[in-house]
Amino acid sequence: METGITKHDLIAGDDKKVEHVDDGENKFSSDGELEAALEVDDEEGRRILTKVDYRLVPVLSLLYLVAFLDRSNIGNANVAGLTTDLGLHGLQYNTAVTLFFVPYTLLEVPSNIILKMMKPSRWITILMFCWGLTMTLMGLVNSYSGLLAGRFFLGVTEAGFFPAATFLLTLWYRRYEVQRRMAVFYVAATLSGAFSGLLAYGIQNLDGKSGMQGWQWIFLIEGLIPIFLSFFIWKILPDSPETASFLTQRERDYLVNRLAEDPTTGTGRVTNKDKMAKGHILAGLSDWKVWCAVVIFWGNTVGVYGFTATVPTVINGLGYSAANAQLLTIPIYLFASIMTLIFAWMSDRWQTRSPFIIAGYGIASCGFIAQLAIPHPLYPGLTYGFLFPVAAGLYCPFVSLVSWVANSLAPSSKRAVGMALFIAVGNMGGIMGSNIYLKREAPRYTTGFAVSLTMCLCAIIMTFVLRWAYGRENAKRAKILAENTEEEIRARYTEQEMLDLGDKSPFFRYTL
């Protein structure tokens, strides 16, 4: 006899009693048998998580590498002759770099709302095909206005990917598991700098082939990659633990249950199955702590977007050839990748975020101070050497910050909006970063390094502020629990009301 009640209903907190549940794979005669079926030992739990890791993280990492490659390859194209061939002068190159961020920042929140309403795999596939097509067509531009149009529509089509991918990761892992996975995903962006330099070095050899310049080949070839991938990703990328076809029903139920009962969020239950509502949108947009995190994010985006678009030119200005300048970017990004992974592993292991954010920006600050102090280009080796702490210090705290924001927002609909807002407004720092490395200041780039240093210091200060705010709120909730029993507090709410409270629940605990 069909009851209309699934195992997920019981896992999610439905206290109805049933005599029979049929999921098409297993039959249970009682709740007790169901709970017994969900008991998983540590070894099997690790096996299930490893199975998810191998399916989800490499796919998202590959996609992010491709996305970051396409948004930042204008720096490689510039070294390959873009500015000369299009007759750019003054701030026109900076304007082209900047224009990307206008639609990119404005469309991230709407994109994540759409993501919450449809399958992530389908939405990400649509975005991939569109940005690949845009990048390919940029290889055909022959004027400044054409370059501006290409950068604008690249911003439109890439806007939704990063917030969608980071949100998708939070649907699969507990709060002190997600940063390690997110670091592997984000390292793809760091490695894209190295891969972009290597790929651009090779593509430049096509200069003059079929009547196209080297920079045109860079846009054309690097645009065809996401178009090709889009034909497969919709089938490969899993959407959520509840619907993952590569898992058995037992494995799906185990993942859903362990996420709902994540002990590191406090003693309450959490849910990722809530439906997007107006209240979630308003809560995500109005949370002041998200806006504080934006300031911390600016420490990253101001430096990173200016750095990635300019570092080949900086190295080129130290006396290295254009081809060697492309190659010399590779060790810098490899070092930053290693540091990012180390920070993420330590942050999850110690179950804290803010110390690693402060440490990262501290390292970057030391690198920027050195760049300002060295008399360029008298010591090219020393100048090049201090690009390493700049890159490492900018990249490694970012994953801790994204994980910190994700850990602090619940339920999932509020998290989707809050994370998109955080990333959208945070990426506006890219507008500043794209305009502070001035061509007339080469090779010293005093304005660029000084502004980046200032933003890193502001990020450190705001991290201390946010840590203090979260700590004070945790103390208030601990006091409430000390003065009232858990049963007395729960009696004031229904189970659904408690879930809807999300991070406002007296049982919820913020990460420090």
From TrEMBL:
PROSITE patterns from the UniProt entry: MFS (PS50850)
Membrane topology according to the record: Multi-pass membrane protein
Domain of life: Eukaryota
Pfam families, sorted: MFS_1 (PF07690)
Location (main, coarse): membrane
Entry's Gene Ontology cellular component terms: membrane
Keyword Plastid attached: no
Annotated transmembrane regions: 121-140, 152-172, 184-203, 215-237, 288-307, 327-344, 356-374, 386-405, 417-437, 449-470
Residue ranges of every copy of the Major facilitator superfamily (MFS) profile domain listed in the record: 56-471
Name of the protein this chain belongs to: MFS general substrate transporter
Coiled-coil regions listed in the entry: none
Entries under InterPro entries matching the protein: MFS, MFS_dom, MFS_trans_sf
Keyword Transmembrane: yes
Cell compartment(s), UniProt: Membrane
Keywords, alphabetical: Membrane, Transmembrane, Transmembrane helix, Transport
GO MF terms held by the record: transmembrane transporter activity
